Amino acid sequence: ALTGCAANTGGGGDDDLITVGFAQTGSESGWRSANTESLKAALSEENGFELIFNAADNKQEAQIAAVRSFINQGVDAIVIAPITVDGWDDVLKEAKDAGIPVILEDRTVSASDDLYATWVGLDFKQEGKTAGEWVADNFGAEPTNLVILEGTTGSSAALDRATGFAEAIDGTSINVLDSQTGDFTRDGGKKVMEGFLQKYGSEIQVLFAHNDDMGLGALDAIKAAGLTPGEDIKIVTIDAVKDGMQALADGEFNYIVECNPLLGDQVADLVKKVLAGESVDKAYIVPDGAFTQEDAIELLPTRPY
Ligand code: AHR
Question: What residue ranges carry the coiled-coil annotation (predicted)?
Answer without folding.
Answer: none
